[in-house]
From TrEMBL:
GO terms for molecular function: ATP binding; phosphoprotein phosphatase activity; phosphorelay sensor kinase activity. It is found in: Cell membrane. Residues 379-421 are annotated as: Disordered. Pfam families: HATPase_c, HisKA. This is Sensor-like histidine kinase SenX3. Residues 402-421 have a biased composition (Pro residues). It catalyses: ATP + protein L-histidine = ADP + protein N-phospho-L-histidine. It comes from Streptomyces phaeolivaceus. InterPro entries: BphY/WalK/GraS-like, HATPase_C_sf, HATPase_dom, His_kinase_dom, HisK_dim/P_dom, HisK_dim/P_sf, Sig_transdc_His_kin-like_C. Residues 383-393 have a biased composition (Basic and acidic residues). Residues 162-382 form the Histidine kinase domain.
Length: 421
């Protein structure tokens, strides 16, 4: 009996000890599970409340870095600019700024030129980077793309410089000519000659100011707010009347033809100015006793038909390098000839803006010594004006694409032209 009692007491004591040890082990395990680990501190940091929502609505590219320089949060724009790659900030100057800000808590800002991702032409991406501390461990990087703003500023600067130069020439000429008139008051022939020159310079100055106003208007106004169906034959007749005197002086024959009863959708005044500029250029840059042709036709395009108005001349033609720039403001193929004809270098720029604002385009075919064909392509009135592609490729009637931007070729787009006196 004594032996059995001793065995039972030993078993009871062992059971109690086992239970106590199991309970302690369970509580220790729970405590360890609740304690944050070193890995979770570094790989799963928590953004302060509301920061994630704010970053999602910012226009700037946003990147949040932790104390190990790992990316905690990055906007889609940051990936698009190539700032974040493989979970790391890929721009070393920005990484250096982030480390300095983490060390001393100061906000830093700098403008950088970065290589544009995905291009091999060495184009630079201008950005403004701003780094600020976010809480005690995180750093916020905001990057603003300044590329477009810098391009617009460069265009504005060039435009002001060109306008200043163009205005300076006739104003200076008028000043000198007025002095010459005063000095030749006793010479009627000289006064008459100088007065004629003053009229020419005054006309040039007036034309320049008017075209600056026209260019500003077509860039700022929405032509489709006051759009209406416009008859193409009326636009052609107005353009011919505008240039009839210059053409008669040079004995240039003007011929109009093509499909009748066509209509385009847009602002009548702007369309008339654009077509008038094309016809005026054709007359000014054509030799004497040649012909200028104007033809209109309908072409089928996805989303609705287009109307093509082609202006063809037998002029000096345009070189390949000049064709890439002729629609730039103030660009002249032959500056000396432009000054003789009173050109301002803004006519084709106005045509380009009018065509684009009406959902169309203007193209050019030209060969030196053979002449040029400018084609104004616009949506037909009644066709859909909300097109997925506003500049579709044109097809011939047999479904084959045109081999050249101008389907009319070097000359004679009119099978049976009507000669206008």
């Amino acid at each position: 009996m004594d032996v059995n009692a001793a065995v039972a007491a030993a078993a009871a004591i062992a059971g109690v000890l086992t239970g106590v040890i199991a309970m302690l082990a369970f509580r220790f395990s729970e405590r360890e599970q609740k304690r944050p680990t070193r890995t979770s501190l570094h790989t799963d940091p928590v953004l302060p409340p509301g920061v994630d929502t704010v970053l999602s609505v910012l226009r700037s590219s946003a990147v949040v870095l932790d104390e190990a320089d790992a990316v905690v949060k990055a906007s889609s724009a940051a990936y698009a600019l190539g700032l974040v790659r493989g979970g790391k900030l890929a721009v070393e100057p920005m990484m250096k700024m982030a480390r300095e800000t983490r060390r001393d808590g100061e906000i830093r800002q700098v403008e950088l030129d970065l290589p544009r991702r995905g291009t091999g032409r060495g184009e630079a991406l201008a950005v403004s980077a701003r780094v600020a501390p976010l809480g005690s461990r995180l750093v916020l990087l905001l990057v603003e793309d300044l590329t477009e703003a810098r391009r617009i500023e460069a265009v504005r600067r060039d435009f002001v410089a060109n306008v200043s130069h163009e205005l300076k020439t006739p104003v200076g000429a008028l000043s000198l000519l007025s002095e010459a008139v005063m000095g030749a008051s006793d010479d009627p022939e000289a006064v008459e000659r100088f007065a004629g020159r003053m009229q020419i310079e005054a006309t040039r100055l007036t034309n320049l100011v008017q075209e600056l106003i026209d260019l500003s208007r077509v860039q700022n106004d929405d032509p489709l707010e006051d759009a209406e169906p416009v008859r193409v034959d009326e636009l052609v007749a107005e353009a011919v009347d505008r240039c009839r005197h210059q053409a008669g002086t040079k004995q240039i024959t003007m011929a109009a033809g093509g499909t009748a009863e066509l209509r385009v959708w847009g602002n009548r005044g702007q369309l008339a100015a654009a077509l008038g500029n094309l016809v005026e250029n054709a007359v000014n840059y054509s030799p004497a006793r040649t012909r200028v042709g104007i033809a209109a036709r309908r072409v089928t395009a996805p989303g609705g038909d287009n109307i093509e108005i082609a202006v063809t001349d037998q002029g000096i033609g345009i070189s390949d390098k000049d064709k890439e720039r002729i629609f730039e403001r103030f660009y002249r193929v032959d500056p000396a000839r432009s000054r003789q004809t009173g050109g301002t270098g803004l006519g084709l720029a106005i045509v380009k803006h009018v065509a684009a604002s009406h959902g169309g385009e203007v193209t050019v075919w030209s060969s030196e010594g053979q002449g040029s064909t400018f084609t104004l392509r616009l949506p037909e009135a009644g066709a859909s004006r909300d097109r997925a592609d506003p500049h579709p490729d044109l097809d011939d009637e047999d479904g084959q694409p045109h081999p050249d931007p101008s389907p009319y070729g070097p000359y004679d787009p009119l099978p049976a032209p009507e000669v206008l006196p």
